[in-house]
């Protein structure tokens, strides 16, 4: 049975913030300094920023739930002009205790379906270069490594692409 997911709403913001804080702490310990994590979370997951994202026409967001509680979320950047911009899986996180139960896969499948429906042929994702667990997860879903890059605060990242069949 697929994990229950639904479009994210403004009322989900506190839960998204909590999932972000907990997953970032668990995921990036030893990879990203705590002060850098805190600064990023404060900026990228402020109520104002999340309200902006949820209202943005090029952003799709879903949450995964269990027992009435949000356990994961996904943000997809899906631009209207697919000739000059590309879809990007901007964030996908599931609480550590809920991982391995199909929530991430259900969120991912919703994003792929949205990309396919929009008529795009590729989906990009960028992740921390040393996060081997997420890299393996992306590869199991069909993503192929494309190149390395450096992000905010000199964080080394790996860029992956997924060809979307029509």
Kindly describe this structure:
There is one protein chain. Helix content is 37%, strand content 31%. The chain is an alpha+beta fold and 166 residues long. The chain has one domain: 3-Layer(aba) Sandwich (Aminopeptidase), CATH 3.40.630. It has a 7-stranded mixed β-sheet with strand order 1-2-3-4-5-7-6, with helices on both faces. A hairpin with a 2-residue loop joins strand 2 (59-66) and strand 3. Helix 1 (13-28) packs antiparallel against helix 2.
Structural class: alpha+beta
DSSP summary, beta strand count: 7
What name goes with the CATH superfamily?
A: Gcn5-related N-acetyltransferase (GNAT)
Helix content: 25-40%
Order of helices and strands: EHHHEEEHEHEE
Distance between the termini: 25 Å
CATH architecture assignment: 3-Layer(aba) Sandwich
Q: What is the typical, i.e. mean, pLDDT?
A: 92
Could you say which overall geometry the principal axes of the C-alpha atoms support? globular
When the domains are counted, the total is 1
Q: Per CATH, what is the topology? A: Aminopeptidase
How large a portion of the residues is in β-strands, by DSSP E? 25-35%
Query: How many strands, what sense, and barrel or not for the largest sheet?
Result: 7 strands, mixed
Over the alpha carbons, how many angstroms does the gyration radius reach? 15 Å
Q: Which regions contain 5 or more consecutive residues with pLDDT less than 50?
A: none
Which secondary structure elements does this structure contain, and how are they paired or packed?
Layout: E1 5-7, H1 13-28, H2 34-44, H3 47-55, E2 59-66, E3 69-77, E4 88-94, H4 103-118, E5 122-128, H5 132-140, E6 144-151, E7 155-163
Parallel strand pairs: 4-5
Antiparallel strand pairs: 1-2, 2-3, 3-4, 5-7, 6-7
């Amino acid at each position: 049975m697929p994990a229950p997911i639904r479009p994210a709403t403004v009322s989900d913001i506190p839960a998204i913030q909590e999932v972000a804080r907990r997953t970032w702490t668990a995921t990036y310990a030893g990879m990203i300094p705590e002060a850098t994590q805190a600064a990023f979370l404060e900026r990228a997951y402020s109520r104002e920023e999340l309200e902006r994202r949820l209202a943005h026409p090029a952003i799709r967001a879903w949450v995964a739930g269990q027992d009435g509680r949000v356990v994961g979320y996904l943000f997809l950047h899906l631009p209207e002009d697919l000739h000059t911009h590309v879809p990007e899986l901007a964030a996908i996180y599931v609480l550590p205790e809920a991982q391995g139960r199909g929530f991430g896969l259900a969120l991912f499948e919703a994003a792929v379906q949205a990309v396919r429906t929009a008529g795009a042929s590729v989906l990009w994702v960028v992740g921390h270069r040393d996060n081997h667990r997420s890299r393996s997860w992306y590869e199991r879903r069909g993503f192929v490594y494309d190149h390395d890059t450096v992000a905010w605060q000199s964080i080394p990242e790996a860029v992956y692409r997924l060809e979307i069949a029509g």
